[in-house]
């Protein structure tokens, strides 16, 4: 499915109590989900053994300069702990537009590396741990979207991948208990699977995977 054009905000991993100190930044896929750069060479160069562990878990990784002095950031998805979302903020930056534009391509091909992040008041820093990759429960096949679904995602400023991931990993969204049980049955015995989600603007979107797993469609209920 072609991703709709949207304008996710650029959020910084702010150090509370400081004016503009941050440990990374990313485009906001959801309130607790960013894709962008996490500073790894500060206060000292990153431990090679940690990078080796990242490579073992995710297969590869990418580092890119974040400062004029060459300190690097890790290209990754960042899952923010609930009590730390309050420290994601907008910050004044002289190259704000350039930073955001450099990250936009990641929306089309999300990095595999995913870290769980939270602000530690004890250490006065952002702490990370590896988010073990999950295996999708079934294949989505060819992903397509109806005009209504694409427009709804564009209006909400949300990526289709956000909902496709939930669907593929068994989060059926806003469906009755009977439909959840039906999906669980369909997952086991090879029938169609239907999830329902609500965008930030309140629009309801369905994600439907065919019984043979050849295709998945994102659509509005009245387009069914």
Please give a structural write-up.
It is globular, with a radius of gyration of 19 Å. By secondary structure, the protein is of the alpha+beta class. It folds into two domains: 10-130, no CATH class; 142-223, no CATH class. A hairpin with a 7-residue loop joins strand 1 (10-14) and strand 2 (22-30). Residues 1-5 have low confidence and may be disordered. It has helices spanning 48-58, 96-103, 147-156, 160-168, 177-189; strands at residues 10-14, 22-30, 33-39, 63-65, 72-80, 88-89, 114-120, 125-130, 142-145, 193-198, 204-209, 215-219.
The global form is globular
**Helix/strand order:** EEEHEEEHEEEHHHEEE
Mind describing the biggest β-sheet?
8 strands, mixed
Domain module count: 2
Mean pLDDT comes to 91
SS content category: alpha+beta
Uncertain segments are: 1-5
N-to-C terminal Cα separation, in Å? Answer: 17 Å
Number of helices: 5
Proportion of residues in β-strands: 25-35%
Helix fraction by DSSP (H/I, runs of at least 4): 10-25%
Q: What gyration radius follows from the Cα positions, in whole Å? A: 19 Å
Give the total of beta strands: 12
Summarize the structure.
The chain is α+β, with helices and mostly antiparallel strands. 23% of the residues lie in helices and 31% in strands.
Supply database-style keywords.
alpha+beta, single chain, 12 strands
Q: What are the SSEs and their pairings?
A:
Elements: E1 10-14, E2 22-30, E3 33-39, H1 48-58, E4 63-65, E5 72-80, E6 88-89, H2 96-103, E7 114-120, E8 125-130, E9 142-145, H3 147-156, H4 160-168, H5 177-189, E10 193-198, E11 204-209, E12 215-219
């Amino acid at each position: 499915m072609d991703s709709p054009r949207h304008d996710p905000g650029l959020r910084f991993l702010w150090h509370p109590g400081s004016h503009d100190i941050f440990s990374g930044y990313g485009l906001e896929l959801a309130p607790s989900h960013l894709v962008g750069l996490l500073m790894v060479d500060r206060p000292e160069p990153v431990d090679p053994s940690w990078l080796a562990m990242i490579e073992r878990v995710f297969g590869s990784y990418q580092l890119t300069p974040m400062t004029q002095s060459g300190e690097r950031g890790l290209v990754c998805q960042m899952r923010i702990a609930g009590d730390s979302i309050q420290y994601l903020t907008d910050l004044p930056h002289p190259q704000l537009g350039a930073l955001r534009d450099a990250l936009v391509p990641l929306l089309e091909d999300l990095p595999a590396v995913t870290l769980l992040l939270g602000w530690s008041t004890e250490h006065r820093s952002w702490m990370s741990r590896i988010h073990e990759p999950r295996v999708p429960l079934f294949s989505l096949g060819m992903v397509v979207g109806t005009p209504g679904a694409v427009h709804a995602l564009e209006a909400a400023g949300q990526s289709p991948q956000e909902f496709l991931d939930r669907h593929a990993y068994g989060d059926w969204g806003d469906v009755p208990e009977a439909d959840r049980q039906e999906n669980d049955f369909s997952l086991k015995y090879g029938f169609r699977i239907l999830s329902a989600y609500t965008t930030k603007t309140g629009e309801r979107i369905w994600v439907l995977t065919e019984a043979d797993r050849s295709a998945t469609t994102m659509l509005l209920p009245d387009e069914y």
